Each structure stands twice: as C-alpha cells, then as structure tokens.
C-alpha cells in the first residue's frame, strides 16, 4: 500500500503505552470471531440460567470467561457479517466504513487495518478462517486479499458464500464475484486436499500449528492472529466424530499437512456426529441437536487453543478476545436443508430481535476477553463498546499510536481496571426490506416490526433507534438497554434523557455518505457544528497523548523488544 508506506514507517518508529503497560512486554493477540452466534448462545451469559431442558453447555468458554472479563454490552457494527467485519478490520464504525448493508465480497478500503497496525508494530500477522472482504478477481489479483491488508499469512475461505459449507471439499458453484468457491492457503486453492475436513476442526488445527511454528521460529516476536470460525452459521453441518482426546500441542485437534488427511479428524462419515450430551434428548429436533453440537465444537476448540498457549508458556501474556459478528439467524445456509430456529434455545437471550435487526438481539453480541497477566479474573463490564474499539486497544498494547482514521477508543482501562475509560461511540446503520419475525410471544415489543432503513446511536448510556426511516425528521425511540434489554419502554421526553434533536444532530456529525449505500432519509442533510475543534479532535483520536485520559507524554517509551 504505497500511499500508507510513510505513515506505517512512522508508526513503526514510535511507541506508545499506558502507564499500566509501559514496562510490560507486548502481548500476543488473538481475536476469535464466530459467525451468527447469539448473545444467548453462551453458557455463562444465558444458557446456564435457563430452567428449560432446552439448553446446552459451553463449559470451556465458561472457564475462559471466569478467567477473564465478560463484556455484556458489546456491539457489532451491523446485524450482518460483511459490514461488521469491515468495521472491525478498518477500525471505523458504519458511518465511515466503505462496506455497508449486504455488500458481501466487496473490496475493503485500502487504508490502515488491524493487520497493518500490528504488522507495523513488529508483530507476525495471520488470518485463519473466513475473510469475505476480498474484492473481485482471482486470489492472486484480488485488491483486498488479506495479504494486501496487513496479514503475512492467510488460510481459509476467501468468499462469503464458500464459508456456508463446513466441508470445503464439497464446495461447488461460484461466489458473489463469479469466482469458483474454494478454500485457500494464501492464494493457492487447496479445496481438493481437504476431504472430510470439518471447518471448525480445520481452522483450529491450522491455528494451533501456526501459533506453535511462529513461537518456535521467533519466540521474541509477538503475533497477531485473526481467527474466524464459520460456525455456528448455517448450513448446520456437524463433525465426522468426537473431538480428539486431550488438548494442546500433542492432543486435541492436530494438523498433519497430508493432502486427503489434512487433520486428525479427516475420516469417518461427513455431517454425521451429534454430541452425546444431545443425541438422545427427548423433544429435540435434528436441527436443535446440530446447533448444540456446533456450539460445543467451538467450545472444545477454544479450550484446545488456550491449552496450546499454556503449554508454549505464552498463555499469561496472550490477549484473547472471543465474540460473534452479529446476532443469531433464523435461516438455512445457501444450499443447506436445515433451517436454524433461534427460539428453541432462546439464542437471543433476554433481548428482542435476531440477525438483520438493529434491536438488541441483532447487534449485541457475546464477548469475552482473557489476558491473565493484566485482566483480573471474573470481571463483568456493562459499559457499551463496539468492534471499532479493538483497533486502538490493540495499538495501545502493541506500543504504537492508533492511525488518525480510527473511530474507536482503547478499551485498555476497562480490561485492566486502570485509568479512566473513555466512552465508546456505538453507531449502527443498516437497510433491508423485510420485517422482524412475527413472533409476538417471543418478541412482544417488536414482533413483525418493519426494518428497511435503520439507525442506532448510543448517547450518555441511552440507545436511540429508529427503523423504517423515511425522513431525518423521524424520531428515535430511546431506551435504557441496561435496565430494559427487551426495549419495551420508550423514554423520549423523560428527565435526564437525551433529546430527539441531540440524537438527530449527532448522527449527522458521525457519518459520511457512501456512494454505494445511499440513505435517502439522511444523505444531503446539513451537518450541525461540533462543539469545538479541540474536543472534536480528541473524540476522533482519543489515543493522542496530549488528551488521553490514561496517558501523558511521560508514558511514552519504547516497548520491550
């Protein structure tokens, strides 16, 4: 990326750390992203508290949560995968991202990303799993292939539709850009070598292998791994066999690298194995058993990964984030015959709405963070935050300032319990011409609600949401989602609640028009003035040492190398 070369060099030459981290070695960072996992799908968040027999367990994720911090009001940038992933990687919310709505497989902006920032800080970088932001063409010339957005290594599905199939060797047809679906090692298509490889197993085995190889080859070099599972997204395919015994370097999932037997579970009958805890459950549909099995497989995989870190001696200083790209789906995967119904397990938890809703169930996602060296075990945060906050967070722990083009704030104060946490800008916009499901007994406040143009903004802890927007004059509904997660009581006009004008002014100040995602209700509206240039810049770049609530110029020093 020639236009960024000088700035990347400058980033590499600078160092930055909060007082709590100034003398600490830089951590390895792993960001684990699931596909369509609902807030209520996590045991420690919701499943464990259900009195119904219609529930499943996530014991290893529960242990992960108990070792770290639960972010119970963490928000995806959009209620569907492509825009969520674009905002995450670019570090900007949906008011500034170039991929919005349902723009799958489009070209990701040629600008700073999580990959470029971490690479500039001297990290080894890899993306393993689902990408979906590659742009047109073949892998060699795709304009935003992961290798062109800061990642040294890529292994996985490039195309969005490819990742709907959990057995890559079975992939047929073409993606949204007209290219054959497939699975790739960097730019080499290896689909034919992956017979009977289940996606969760394959991604886990390759991640373990990459982590071990990287640490062995360069033990002093930290790494950043963007690990993106295709599960529990439809088609609701299940594994061939039980998760292998043990975990870590010599147990659990293992990479062999042998075509036709690439991992140690590449045998047996595909799409056949149901977890024994659920196989004989009375009253459970085949679909329910499949969803619970997929979730349990992710659970085993995360336990296997943390055991690997422990055996390598790097667990204490590895920051691991676990989350999902949007709320739970109510759909079949492309070409699949199983339609997931989130009502069976209440995958949305106490929230209303599902994937493609900007109600809480569509955008509030389960999120856990584990970093034993710096995060006190057993913590729970109810502070709203959003995906674009991870870029400044990772920049801070890596010892570099965030790029100027970044909308987030560092979450280091929330993670470590030191300093003052700056408020996050939580903003969502999305459009789709269908309604929220007509489930009045499940979603009594919002059943069959038209979606169409939708917009969400958090202000002073309150959520402003408007759906089916026809004009910028349309009012927001205002909720206290901490006390009212089902969004049942509109607080408009109540004392201490932001006004309609404040919400309307703020959304105009936040966003820029996207030529490929027109918003007729708001495009072309005059933008109200912001309070002052100084406060505006501080809001845009909260990591600036002159203004950060957690740092001063005295905190600047080279991070340990």
TrEMBL record:
Pfam families: Sulfatase. SUPFAM superfamilies: Alkaline phosphatase-like. Keywords: Signal. InterPro entries: Alkaline_phosphatase_core_sf, GAG_Ulvan_Degrading_Sulfatases, Sulfatase_N. Residues 512-561 are annotated as: Disordered. It comes from Luteolibacter arcticus. Residues 1-22 form the signal peptide. The keyword Signal applies. Residues 533-549 have a biased composition (Low complexity). PANTHER family: SULFATASE (PTHR43751), SULFATASE N-TERMINAL DOMAIN-CONTAINING PROTEIN (PTHR43751:SF3). It comes from the Bacteria. This is Arylsulfatase. Residues 27-400 form the Sulfatase N-terminal domain.
